[in-house]
Design goal:
SH3 type barrels; Lipocalin; 3 domains; five-stranded antiparallel β-sheet; 3 helices; 51% strand; SH3-like_bac-type
Length: 388
């Protein structure tokens, strides 16, 4: 049985044994959506003749809790945008899911990047309700000087404009930055989305001279990061490597033991798979951050494999659990709530174009990431044709 199906069965069993008392909004469990291809009117009622409360502009993000109805021959979602609650009914191809924790590739402190896609506001502080200092046009070069901070459904970077020296905060709504000078240390690429200002640790420099001998023949370092995954007792160096000849990624972690860098974790991805995400987050109420390693298998269909690593004082750095495999899958991390989606097809739907998604929601319960919800929803970018 497919592991993601097993997880959905566990959620059902848990609901039977320990009722969750879900409402039509699935107990308030949030999903983050974004307007990608145009503006969206937010109506007071599910009717185009009702008052418009606000306009969700292209690039804006908002919250959907799964409430939806059919009215006036269209499908409507009940959403929250800033302080407003109301109904939207955009055409297909306008809105879709967004991940507040996702960042433009290679963005990190000290990185230099170019603004692409569209002009971006520079804010006095992180958060959309703070004063706007300036509007930066496409092509503006910036340098990251602090961050990241996740506020108002976005990850924010503090930047300095190269041409003027002006400083402020920009929201990262992927992909708006093209990094031209990524953060590198001792010639190695530093892994992005590790928030090293919080989770980074010094004292790892001596691994540089021995690192090539710690890898397999044919492997090269994709990126590395020195972390306090053990709570800050000593640096744990995470290394993502790849063997191009075998088309295979590997993930390792090393700790300094009795003066020697010792492997404490090693895992190989399937051949011809690619790392889709490697990031470090505080998802629990303790000193040990969680490392997320998602790998994508691109065969006849894109399959997302998930792996979670945490440090256990009794057993060391271990793969705490895996959420399984998700067909055409993707992930959304909103606060400490981890959600995985995979394609759900009606009979005779083509492989390219599923009308629905299966949603698997997990939360930390103090011991493990426990499943709290499974359901099937219409896919937002096909809101008018995906009637579920």
């Amino acid at each position: 049985m497919h592991l993601s199906k097993v997880l959905s069965l566990l959620v059902v069993i848990a609901a039977l044994c320990f009722p969750l008392h879900l409402t039509s909004a699935q107990a308030g469990i949030e999903m983050v959506l974004q307007a990608y291809n145009g503006d969206v009117a937010l109506y007071e009622r599910a009717s185009s003749s009702s008052a418009i409360l606000a306009v969700i502009r292209k690039g804006d993000r908002f919250i959907w809790r799964a409430d939806r109805i059919d009215a006036e021959g269209r499908q409507w979602f009940f959403v929250q945008f800033d302080k407003f609650f109301g109904w939207i009914s955009p055409d297909d191809g306008v809105i879709d899911f967004a991940d507040p924790s996702a960042i433009s590739p290679l963005m990190d402190r000290s990185a230099v990047a170019i603004i692409e896609d569209s002009p971006r506001n520079l804010y006095a502080a992180p958060g959309r309700f703070n004063p706007v200092i300036a509007s930066l046009p496409v092509g503006t070069a910036i340098k990251v000087i602090d961050a990241p901070v996740t506020i108002d459904l976005y990850t924010w970077w503090k930047v300095r404009v190269n041409s003027s020296g002006m400083e402020g905060w920009i929201a990262d709504s992927v992909p708006i930055f093209r990094v031209t000078e990524p953060l590198r240390v001792y010639g190695y690429q530093v892994c992005d989305n590790f928030n090293l200002a919080v989770f980074g640790m010094t004292g790892w420099d001596s691994i540089v001279s021995v690192l090539p001998s710690l890898l397999d023949v044919g492997e090269t370092v994709v990126c590395l990061a020195s972390t306090k995954m053990d709570g800050g007792l000593s640096p744990i160096v995470v290394v993502l490597a790849r063997n191009e000849a075998r088309a295979q990624d590997s993930l390792r972690a090393f700790a300094l033991r009795s003066g020697r860098w010792t492997p404490i974790f090693a895992r190989y991805a399937d051949a011809f798979a690619r790392t889709d995400r490697l990031s470090l987050h505080n998802l629990s109420d303790d000193a040990f951050p969680t490392l997320i390693w998602n790998v994508r298998l691109d065969g006849t269909g894109s399959v997302l494999q998930n792996n979670l690593l945490r440090f256990n004082p009794a057993t060391g750095l271990v793969e705490s659990q895996s959420m399984g495999e998700f067909y055409k899958g993707f992930m959304q991390l909103n606060g400490r709530q981890m959600t995985f989606f995979q394609a759900n097809y009606l009979p005779d739907e083509p492989n390219c174009c599923p009308s629905g998604v299966e949603r698997y929601v997990f939360e930390w319960n103090g011991v493990t990431f426990a499943p709290v919800l499974y359901d099937v929803l219409p896919i937002p970018y096909a809101i008018q044709t995906a009637r579920r």
